[in-house]
Amino acid sequence: MLLTNKNRLIQMLGSALGSLARERGLDQPTAPRLERPKAVDHGDVACNIALQLSKAWKLNPRELAQALVECLQKEPGFDQLINSCEIAGPGFINFRLSNAAKTAVVNEILTEGPYFGELPKDRATVPNAMIEFVSANPTGPLHVGHGRQAALGDALANLLATQGTKVHREFYYNDAGVQIANLALSVQARLNGLKPGDSAWPEQAYNGEYIAEIAAAFKSSPEYKDDLEAIRLFAVAYLRNEQDIDLKTFGVQFDCYYLESSLYTDGSVAQIVGDLQSIGKTYESEGALWLRTTDDGDDKDRVMRKSDGSFTYFVPDVAYHTSKWNRGFHKVINVQGSDHHGTIARVRSGLQGVAQKRGWDIPKTYPDYVLHKMVTVMRHGEEVKISKRAGSYVTVRDLVEWSGGVTPEMTPETRELALQRGRDAVRFFLISRKADTEFVFDIDLALQQNDENPVFYVQYAHARINSILQQWGGQISDLASADLSLLQSKASDHLLRRLAEYPEVLTDAAAELAPHALAFYLRDLAGDFHTFYNADRVLVDDQNLKAARLALLLATRQVLQNGLKVLGVSAPAKM
Known about the structure:
The chain is an alpha/beta fold. It contains 20 helices and 15 strands. It is 51% helix and 12% strand. The longest helix is centred in the last third of the chain and has 25 residues, at 543-567.
């Protein structure tokens, strides 16, 4: 139901309820809520306010519903909005919208075009927000888990932007610590002629072929020298560039890359530790410094500084999130793997201590988290566990190339088209399930060009509409004046309903941090279109009926474009 129609009906219900309350000397009721009936045959929208008020008003709910309907029918504009209403069950009121109210969505879509469904910035409930995602250690290529983060984070950012929020995308590089030291040792071992399996190969070294690639690149570079720090700097820069290439291939861009190392060099970590010590949030025990996280609901206190003087990994995280708050990002969403669940309480506890020290009003639930589970990759009916280049996991680059059917003999143009197909499939697939569920990515399904492939199913609906409009060959602008009252079939009714849902789908998906809801919606919309196309011939002899149906298809194409764009998926003109 279009938001404008929904708000009009809510206002009418509120006015009618107010009249009943005054007439009978009853308390003023709360605002009524509308919901979509579970069965389409029950109407377009339902309200259970009579059931909610019957006890307090000491009235039979069906009698109250009947009285309310009688008052509603006297409201100005009611007949133009509602075709009929009926009382069902113990007191539900089911409404059927007028044809004019239903078809209004077509004109609204054609008028607003790419902005249909979006809220203007002056109506945003969250003016600005930061989404931190991917944030891979620069110790190797991006794996499929990072791909799921990239798809989720980018779609979430786009969703929030549709609600008028100014979104900042950030990538946090863990370029300090033990893993980076192991990276440097791995490259040094390769430079010394060692390889995995040799007796002198470091136990904690990375075994992928990419380590040999880094060593070869370093040896041929002007920066080459047998110095571990020089190796570390080169290796980190090399892998950061590799990850940037993968992200570009995946169509993901960031506003800022934040370095963990900067939190040490600028004194942020030391300052955070000092702040927490000064308010008694820490204590010494067994040669280590502990944070009183149990004060904030954690199951036990946590070590901040180990006995060897090094900090545990959540300490710079506290410093980093202090920076986020200090930069004005009071709405922050972190997209991370479910293995980060244990850090949430520690980071939030540390932030509460910083807030106490500095007089900041940081909510106890800051930041928000979207945690995703593992991705299993299947190819030719078998699980794929390793990539030769990465050594122990499937990379994002592998996934995109496999899903697009990329082969070595392709021309640059054909390869680019295949990469686009692969990128679309990977993005749509990885978004199409709730983040907290494990996901099986089937390469064979991604390559299929049929209705079983969900991204193909949605994209084909868009391409099919393009084909119909081209076959018609008329002026698109002429469809703005189509007589939409001629859209009266059951199939067109279902399609109109689905189109009208789009703005609320965006709002709800953004509020619930659930981009999968939009993927579900687009599949349903594509299904309703295919059903309509098969039931109602579009290019009929009746010029007025043809124009009305073409206008409906034009609106459907626009919403498919809009939704796919939010997910970061292309809307091909032909397939």
